[in-house]
Amino acid sequence: MLRSMFSAISGLRAHQTKMDVTGNNIANVNTVGFKGSQTVFQDTLSQVIRAGGAPAADRGGTNPAQVGLGVKVAAITTNWTQGATQSTGRSTDFMIEGDGFFVTRGTGGEQLFTRAGSFDFDGAGKLVTPDGSILQGWMANADGVVNPNGPIGDLSVPYGQLVNPSASTSGIVNGNLPSDAAIGATAQTGITMYDSQGVAQKVFYNFAKTGANTWDVTVDHSDGTNLLPATQIEFDAAGALIDPAGPAFNLPAFTPPAAYASWQNAVTVNISGLTQYGGANTLGAPEQDGYALGSLQSFQLGADGTIMGVYSNELRQPIGRLALGSFNNPGGLEKAGNSSFRVGVNSGVAQIGTAAEGGRGALMSGALEMSNVDLAEEFTGLIVAQRGFQANSRVITSSDEILQDLVNLKR
């Protein structure tokens, strides 16, 4: 039989594979996180018709005469370039900007990896993929501390979870006290603090000017009880605070009277942000560290994968952190279906860590990474595969005609 016929058969098979790969790419043009593939061909063994000869003193060398025996699929490679961003507005849609994979726990506890960041909640409050695999990461402890060096586990967002109240132990007062205020002038600002039971305690900071650059500060409860007796503070001629001295710039700590049985801890107020310049009074008390009883209302995802819980008492505290996996050779991963991959023998071990570190990409919430398939390129690939298949079929037809002519020689 003619060698050309068998070569053409291998060409048909190879181009059929290319058509299969191209068809799969086009089918997944709208699949979240899909990475397109390309088919790589290489020739097979060649038959030597005449061996080459080395050059000699009386003649030149000759090249070997070789006839190829067809083509084969050398590889089907994956294109790992970043796909386009599609904004969805869903808080449970995550996108990786850069390298890395979300880590999930599949059926039977198998660890899988995916670029498809479309997650949702199951009945237990866990973040899961559409096929039920559970997103992995690190959950925070009761104080909101996440340990990314520990083992990963299932991530969940426990809506309605209660956070215990915490007594206020510190506060901040900042702003400007007018330098042109008359001696005896007063200024006041207030803030709500909390005792250990989460009961609101309204507190006022009172300032009275006693000299060119000095003010007396008192802290009073809304019921009239004095919490901190008059304490003098002083500014220099340029309007900067010099007493109490830095770097702390704290007023003396005060402990509420015994009448406030559930608020007996010391409270420190920082006034490093105070100034005395000409101009308006901008005195304010922007924050304190206590809070009432609260329940989880919503969450936000940071670029580093931290899931920040937003509670009804205005507390914002981490409730977990997503884990990302990276590989020395992501092309060695094996596709596991459902837009997931599993570790392959040539992928290297999974290097699991936090986002935006160790070569892993940053995270974006409310968006998805779309397929990186280029339709124009795929349609061109369809034409190439079709023409390649057609040309190889013509080789078989021509070889058949030659064989028919050979058979007809006996007639």
Automatic annotation (TrEMBL):
Domain called Flagellar basal body rod protein N-terminal: residue spans: 7-35
GO biological process per UniProt: bacterial-type flagellum-dependent swarming motility
Compartment annotation: Bacterial flagellum basal body
Any matching Pfam family: LlgE_F_G_D1
Heme keyword on record: no
GO CC field: bacterial-type flagellum basal body; bacterial-type flagellum hook; cytosol
Flagellar basal-body/hook protein C-terminal domain mapped to chain residues: 364-409
Tagged with keyword Disulfide bond: no
This protein's UniProt keywords: Bacterial flagellum, Cell projection, Cilium, Flagellum
Flagellar hook protein FlgE D2 domain segment(s): 185-291
Function: A flexible structure which links the flagellar filament to the drive apparatus in the basal body.
PANTHER family according to UniProt: FLAGELLAR HOOK PROTEIN FLGE, FLAGELLAR PROTEIN
Family from the record: Belongs to the flagella basal body rod proteins family.
Protein name: Flagellar hook protein FlgE
Originating organism: Blastococcus mobilis
Taxonomic path: Bacteria, Bacillati, Actinomycetota, Actinomycetes, Geodermatophilales
